[in-house]
Amino acid sequence: MSLDYSQYLIHRQWMSRALDLAQIAGDADEVPVGAVVIDSSGSLIAEGENRKERDNDPTAHAEIIAIRAAAQNLRTWRLNQCTLYVTLEPCPMCAGAIVHARLKLLVYGVDDPKSGAIRTVANIPDSPASNHRLRVFGGILEYSCRQQLQAWFARRRHISN
């Protein structure tokens, strides 16, 4: 998918907000992943950060929290005019939720070589099991997203040694 400069600037703006949310998660001893949902007019309608540890909930990924909030705010589960921004390529659970919510566009920061289910390890949106064709754009603020995750994991390893 090609991107013009104005779209690129908008994607950077919203990914920056997702990075801020990821920082909040990291400061709370959660894996630093943040997500925001934008409506068709370009307004923020929902956001989330990883909360698995704080909520004792294995489904409390940033994407799931943001999608749930967006559906509640719009009073519909069909988010087909919305864009989801997330700092890390979604896992299989989140990729499934993204497809089922029928999001218009997914923009993510950095590939996840261990469990990325959008393009890296698996490709759920383009699989025969998908009932929706999702537009995807990866690599927005990729360096910043990668650095944030690597620094957090490095601190965790240092603390545990």
UniProtKB/TrEMBL annotation:
It comes from the Bacteria. PROSITE patterns: CYT_DCMP_DEAMINASES_1 (PS00903), CYT_DCMP_DEAMINASES_2 (PS51747). GO terms for molecular function: tRNA-specific adenosine-34 deaminase activity; zinc ion binding. SUPFAM superfamilies: Cytidine deaminase-like. Zn(2+) binds at H61, C91, C94. Keywords: Hydrolase, Metal-binding, tRNA processing, Zinc. It is an enzyme of class 3 (hydrolase). Its cofactor is Zn(2+). It catalyses: adenosine(34) in tRNA + H2O + H(+) = inosine(34) in tRNA + NH4(+). Residues 9-137 form the CMP/dCMP-type deaminase domain. The active site is at E63 (proton donor). The keyword tRNA processing applies. The keyword Zinc applies. InterPro entries: APOBEC/CMP_deaminase_Zn-bd, CMP_dCMP_dom, Cytidine_deaminase-like, MafB19-deam, tRNA_aden_deaminase. Binds 1 zinc ion per subunit. Belongs to the cytidine and deoxycytidylate deaminase family. ADAT2 subfamily. Catalyzes the deamination of adenosine to inosine at the wobble position 34 of tRNA(Arg2). This is tRNA-specific adenosine deaminase. It comes from Brasilonema sennae CENA114. The gene is tadA.
